[in-house]
Backbone:
């Protein structure tokens, strides 16, 4: 669905009905329903043309049929994300009951001792990650983009706040990010989208404009960058996989920000390659070539 369509009245009504139904259902039933609906009506509720285009460019060895099936799987995963977000309170206490498992305790210890810049892709269920950090004693500020539909934005932000993390809309985030890092708190970004004013890096072997903000902040505050991967397990359980810390160089140089951003892009690519069927890539990652 295109952003300009999300503010229409029928979208608001549909969202209110669907959200109410999902809140009434137990999580497993809600997830089955939303996954089926999103797969069945993928062309209506997701930008399947862009998802197919991004997958085809990122994975040129995929056949057209594989790309189509993978794009539908992406829509199905988005449906499960919606159900899990709707029931996000079910995941509270997950570090004690085994619902949220971690690989990378050392990186969490780093974040408890001082600021860390966490980065990850739009994959699996990125909405659960802030809860995971908070349950491990990490104070984190998450940067997000608001939805075009006001009811959807208010409702989803209310659910997100149940994670215990701070949420700052990206257009107002500069001061909040600086304050958080100065106070020894961590930041969390989802940054696999192309930005107009980003740094040129290689992403899936192609030129890509990626935001340099995480790298810039890591250099300024001398803190590590940690990539976050995850995997959904049976029974709506998650394993979180934290990568080795990426430290800014000891001696500053003019190319440090771009090189750190390239390191992030390389790491995100490896994460996405592991499970492309869960990569929510509904915005154009690579521009179309200009006509001659």
Residues:
């Amino acid at each position: 669905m295109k952003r300009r369509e999300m503010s229409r009245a029928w979208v608001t009504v549909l969202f209110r009905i669907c959200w109410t139904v999902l809140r009434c259902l137990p999580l497993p039933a809600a997830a089955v329903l939303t996954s089926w609906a999103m797969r069945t009506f993928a062309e209506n509720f997701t930008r399947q043309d862009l998802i197919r285009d991004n997958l085809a460019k990122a994975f040129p060895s995929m056949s057209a049929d594989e790309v189509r099936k993978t794009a539908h799987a992406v829509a199905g995963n988005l449906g499960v994300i919606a159900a899990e977000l709707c029931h996000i309170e079910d995941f509270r206490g997950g570090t004690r009951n085994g619902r949220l498992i971690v690989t990378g305790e050392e990186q969490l210890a780093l974040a408890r001792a001082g600021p860390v810049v966490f980065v990850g892709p739009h994959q699996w269920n990125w909405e659960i990650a802030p809860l995971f950090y908070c349950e491990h004693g990490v104070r984190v500020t998450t940067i997000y983009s608001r939805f075009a539909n006001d009811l959807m934005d208010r409702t989803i932000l209310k659910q997100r706040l149940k994670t215990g993390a701070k949420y700052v809309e990206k257009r107002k985030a500069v001061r909040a990010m600086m304050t958080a890092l100065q106070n020894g708190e961590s930041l969390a970004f989802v940054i696999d989208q192309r930005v107009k004013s980003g740094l040129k890096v290689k992403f899936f072997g192609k030129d890509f404009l990626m935001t340099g903000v995480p790298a810039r902040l890591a250099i300024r505050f001398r803190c590590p960058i940690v990539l976050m991967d995850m995997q959904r397990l049976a029974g709506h359980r998650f394993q979180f996989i934290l990568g080795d810390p990426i430290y800014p160089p000891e001696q500053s140089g003019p190319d440090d920000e771009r090189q750190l951003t390239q390191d992030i892009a390389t790491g995100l690519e490896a994460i996405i390659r592991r499970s492309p069927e869960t990569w929510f890539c509904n915005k154009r990652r690579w521009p179309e070539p200009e006509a001659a």
Remarks:
- The mean pLDDT is 93.
- The radius of gyration is 19 Å.
- Strands lie at 100-103, 117-120, 140-144, 166-169, 186-190, 199-203, 206-210, 225-233, 237-242.
- The first helix runs from residue 9 to 24.
